[in-house]
Amino acid sequence: PSLSFFFPEVLSNPILTPVHGTLEVVMNQNVSLSCHSDSGSPPIKYTLFKYSQKVSTLNRIDLMPALFNLTINSASDVGEYKCKAENKIYGRRYSRSLNFTLEEPLSKPALSSPTSQAKKGQNATLSCLSEKGSLPITYTFFKDKRRISQLVKMQKEAAVTFVLINTSSDLGTYKCRAENSFRNSTKYSNSFNFTLAGMHSCNSQPRIIFLGLILLAFVIGFALAIRFFIIPSCKAGKLFEYLFHFPYMLIYVLSTFKCANMLQVELHSWYFRILSTLLLTSISSETFTRQDF
Questions:
Q1: Cα 120 from chain centroid (whole Å)
Q2: Do the bridges between strand 53-60 and strand 122-129 make them parallel or antiparallel, or are there none, so unpaired?
Q3: What is the 3-state composition of the chain as percent helix, strand, coil, each rounded to the nearest 5?
Q4: Which one of 58, 235, 243, 249 is most buried, counting C-beta atoms within 10 A?
Q5: Burial class of 289 by CB neighbour count within 10 A (0 to 12, 13 to 18, 19+)
Q6: Per-residue pLDDT tens over the stretch 83-113
């Protein structure tokens, strides 16, 4: 009689591959992983792991690969995957690890500086950061739509550039751009402008000066009306003494604002113009006597 012998095949290390050929995934995407040993006697039991935690198990009685279906619901679903193949003859074998990369759209980058005021000749700092988005992120800085920096690839840190403030044209407008591997993910920041230290506050307070002058004219007019219609002429000197000291009290109050020096110059100038006019008018009409004044 003839005898036949069966020699079981050696179980090879399984190969773990993505079915669709890419490891870049987005949130809520369905992915499939194939685990297959090229040689080995069935049945073969395949097990998928994420790190050291078992995800799923499939048994194959033929030499077809095992397919594992996953859904990327969060960043924790992206990690190191491995699969294990085992049978009753040669034990177990493990595949090489496989890692997914989560592609996330960028958030709008924020362009900032430690200070919005700069002195002439100063190297000012600009930083650009997108808080969300798959890494790495490529940043570019612009001034008035003209690129002023090279492409900078960053991981989690902000990109930084320095600008030299020499003239008023160096004050702005600045922007930055962020890009990553996610399709159509280019985002631009809001614009940013520097101001020369000590200049912006004076230019921003013409209304305070105007209101101060109106108040000064109103009080002088009110005092003049009292002088002519209410207070006897013998008390005119006291009235003008109070009137003379009033603008200094007003300037003291307004000195709490920025540009107090400019306010003082303006109020002094206008006050003495008005006071001179009132004195000339009073003398010409012989309303006051020398003693009253």
A1: 25
A2: unpaired
A3: 30, 30, 40
A4: 243
A5: exposed
A6: 999 998 878 999 999 998 888 889 999 999 9
